[in-house]
Amino acid sequence: MQQRGRSGRPVKGRRANRPKARKKPISAPSIPDLQKQLEALSGELKEALQQQTVTADVLKVISRSAFDLDAVLNTLVQSAVVLSGGSFGTIFQKRGELFYLTAAHGYTPEMLAYGQANPLAPGTESNVGRTAMTGSVGDGGAR
What we know:
Order of helices and strands: HHEEHH
Largest sheet: 2 strands, antiparallel
Distance between the termini: 85 Å
Helix content: 40-55%
Strand order of the largest sheet: 1-2
């Protein structure tokens, strides 16, 4: 251990008189950048709120109508259409070898009546039939 004042080196336990490292100044984000961030976060918040609202609606319907499968399925298809930003949607139920329109959203009453009166068979003539045959929602490689 050095004695005080005997050399130019600092005494053990003391700091040398060095200038402190200066931090680089951080530039503040510009107003347009902040506005873009705000818009993006607002969009995410709106989407999350919409998903929570739709989920709550589905859960309400399920809890109120434990034996009303049609109401539950119609609410589910409506929620799926809203969340996906689509225009229409359907749920088909298999009975025997045919697929019956069980729930729908976004269709005219005439289209619903036609769909309910004309069940679909597995085959390449419809998306439902193709999906039933292939087990995939893809186009089966058709171009």
